[in-house]
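ok here's Gastrula zinc finger protein XlCGF7.1-like isoform X2:
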Amino acid sequence: MRDPEPCRIKHTEKQTENEENEELNEEEEKHHVKTGEKPLSCSQTKQKDLKKSRDKKSFTCTQCGMSLGNKHSLEIHMRIHTGEKPYTCDQCGKSFTQSSSLKDHMIIHTGEKLHECDQCGKTFFKASNLKGHLKVHSKEKPHSCSLCGKGFSHLQNLKVHQKIHTGVREYMCFECKRTFITADQLKLHQRIHTGDKPYKCSHCDKRFSRSGNLKTMR
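and the structure:
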């Protein structure tokens, strides 16, 4: 059985850019009046705002109530509930919900050179990920939790941390229905069901589901 992909679908940079462009376009429509066109009356403005409100609501998932920025994001999100994974790796057969996830996965097969941290030796597939990781060693923690004061080097880590306070656990295992705060937690958990042990000891060939267990053995 293959290692299922984490349920949560991350927005790609392109999707985020598209959403931001849509928001900018809406703001431009509110404040800019083309030459020769009459300004909208109060009633027309209200009708227009009402339509936008309805359109925004139409991007809400009917299964879990999550709101998405656009139709495309909603379509991708729905694959969490349907289990649809249209993008398949032609090397190992593993399937993904997004083309970007497949692209990242292909690095495993192509043997693309990893980017290594000169502080701890940890490796990353992307230079941008290594750059973000280096903040851990710099001790810089510009993002603080307003509820408990804990500091984080990355904004995304702060957002994940805040779910502890809100109780939001949006990543669900389809095998046992257990929920998790992060996609990584779900992925590790799913190895219980799949039996996947990707970390192999170079001395005795024993395999482990977590890298931490391998390091402990060494």
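+1. Residues 169-218 form a domain with the Double Stranded RNA Binding Domain fold (CATH 3.30.160.60).
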